[in-house]
Amino acid sequence: EIASVEALRVWDSRGNPTVEVAITTASGAQGRAIAPAGASRGSREALDLRDGGSKLGGMDVRKAVANVNEVIAPKLIGMDVNDQRGIDDTMIALDGTPLKSTLGGNAVVASSLAVMHTAAAAEGVPLWAHLAKKYERQPSIPLPEIQIFGGGAHASQRIDIQDFMVMVPGASDFEEVMEVTSEIFRAAGSLMTQRGGAVGVADEGGWWPSFQTNEEGLELLVEAIELAGETPGDRVVISLDIAASEFASNGKYRLGLEDRDLSSDQMIALLGKWIDTYPIASIEDPLDEDDREGTIAFTQEFGDRIQIIGDDYITTSETMLRKAAGEGACNAVLVKVNQAGTVSEMLDTFMAAEDLGYRNVISARSGETEDVSITHMSAGLGGGQLKVGSFTRSERMVKWNECLRLQNAPGMGGFAAGESLANTWWG
Ligand code: PGA
Ligand code: ZN
């Protein structure tokens, strides 16, 4: 039984305020969680409540914190902490809007995640083990997607494409993924230094992209993979998040870096050329979240060769996922708990994806913290793939390091590795 629910204003990796919720049961078990925050958000995802005004750039969360303490807490106190669904439904009803704009997606998601942590604490088991048991899942260590160059909204739109990432599906264990990725990250850093200019990092810790064209990011990434002693496409493959909604408007795709506008068909042709030229195994949001025709056409053309992930396109919504599946759009879904707003809604999407034959990629946000909930969710649910950002900065590394801790835990399954890329050219 929940005895107290308390929100605290804490700070995320961009130095923005965010909501932490701590829940305590009558028997003294306690769990806590922090809301993450996106920058390249889908228009249909749960809305974070921000105070606006001039203070802290309008980003303050005092209203969201007050909503937890004054509105959510009185309803949750006395409820059974194991009743995740009942608690989430209570908050959904209390909010009463599709995007959780009354209470704030940040207030609701931190509360929902804290319930999950507290239930695990009450049972006296780690979160991943609690989830595996409660939802009858085979736990496993996920295959990571790790960012090497960060662009798009995470680098002031310095280049148009958002994430240039590597995956190591040919690794035999998680240690090997970390080591290979570290070598590639270093190699990419020395290539950037050689080319001159300041070398810094973007929002998720990937190298700041000082390129003349978007494709140069791919060329450099292949060079970095080779410099690290790897054969591109062998043990290591490339994954891209185009985050196309960020540079699409009125049916046109504006490649600002290259000063040109592409139609949907031209955008598909450009990505097709890249798929033919580089060892790309996965592409996320290839087209605008409202470009249904384009996304369906892209999936028809490339869906049997690569993984196509819907992030802004599906926004972790079961309804949107079912719609996409009915139309033949995408073959994988990015799963972000704060897009859905509650753990239960996220689980609905996750389970539906499995039923529909879509791959699940559990993901962090660009604004992150020391919270490791998603590592435990990915491992405990046997999620297959995990996307967390780059290979620097502790709000990222804390999630990878937690995988290292979990891999040897009693009861944990093996490393998900390449099987999650089955039915692509790599698999
Ligand atoms: P966001 O982007 O967290 O900034 O919204 C991450 C992504 O697009 O995957
Ligand atoms: Zn994305």
Automatic annotation (TrEMBL):
Subcellular location: Cytoplasm; Secreted; Cell surface
Cellular component, GO, one term: extracellular region
Cofactor: how bound: Mg(2+) is required for catalysis and for stabilizing the dimer. Binds a second Mg(2+) ion via substrate during catalysis.
Primary location: cytoplasm
An MF annotation (GO) of this entry: magnesium ion binding
E.C. no: 4.2.1.11
Reactions catalysed according to its record: (2R)-2-phosphoglycerate = phosphoenolpyruvate + H2O
Keyword RNA-binding: no
Residues binding Mg(2+): D241, E284, D311
Cofactors demanded by this protein: Mg(2+)
Active site residues per record: E204, K336
Domain Enolase C-terminal TIM barrel: residue ranges: 138-424
Enolase N-terminal domain residues: 2-131
Keywords tagged on the record: Cytoplasm, Glycolysis, Lyase, Magnesium, Metal-binding, Secreted
The protein's role, per its UniProt record: Catalyzes the reversible conversion of 2-phosphoglycerate (2-PG) into phosphoenolpyruvate (PEP). It is essential for the degradation of carbohydrates via glycolysis.
Family of the protein in this entry: Belongs to the enolase family.
Descriptive protein name: Enolase
